Amino acid sequence: MVPRKDKIEYDSDRGVKNRLLDAAELLFCEHGFKGTSVRDISSSAGCNIAAVNYYFGGKNNLYMDVWRRHLIPMRDARIESIERVMSKNKSQIKLEDLLKSFADTFVGPLIDKHGSSCLSRLMAREYIDRRLPANIFVDEVMTPTMNAMSDALIKTCPDLDKSKVLMVIFSLIGQLVHLVHIKMMFEQSEEELNLPVLDLTEVIDHIVKFSAAGIRSYCKGSM
User: Fold this and answer.
1) How far apart, in whole angstroms, are the C-alpha atoms of residue 223 and residue 23?
2) Which stretch of DSSP H or E encloses residue 44?
3) N or C: which end of the chain has fewer CB within 10 A?
4) Which helix (H) or strand (E) covers residue 105, if one does?
5) Which 8-state DSSP code applies to residue 196?
6) Measured between alpha carbons, how far is residue 71 from residues 115, 118, 125 in Å?
7) Do 173 and 148 touch, CB atoms closer than 8 A?
8) pLDDT digits (tens, 9 = 90+) for 98-111
9) pLDDT of 206-219, one tens digit each?
10) Please, is 196 exposed, middle or buried when counting C-beta atoms within 10 Å of its C-beta (0-12, 13-18, 19+)?
């Protein structure tokens, strides 16, 4: 029996597939993969129990599609941010512009109040009970984003050793992921920890300047 708090009031014109995705996302966030049954999902979505198999081929595929609703838009936004900078005249492309555009687009969706709440809860559940195949991140998110950023960096910094490009991107992403985690920790803490005020714009600007300086040092061969 699905708890009342998991019930969703749906627009009657909203498609069955989207209703199932909405219901599944809420239930997976609240109860995890194991704690959510196909019957729970279909009941919450106001659908026949066979609808999950009809539209998704089972709970596993539905779970992956719930994740894709977060991952694919984030991937596309990151790649679009890269392409937007690179579409400028080559002589006008600045390394800082590329890094800043990528950083803003990387961090933004992860700290969006609604989106980050759903995604962070899904991540927490996934850490406890791993259900996603590794290739969903590698093939559908990481590889396309890394390829786009690698090409952009090589074009923006032609003197950059190609063997260093992936490490440069890992360093940049590592700083941004840490920033998101720290911001969440600061905001979610219920204790008076006397933590410093975290100015997101200031930190991103620092990461951009720090990373640009490191990249230019690589280009000069001083690292």
Assistant:
1) 51
2) helix 38-45
3) N
4) helix 95-111
5) P
6) 11, 12, 16
7) no
8) 999 999 999 876 66
9) 999 999 999 999 88
10) exposed
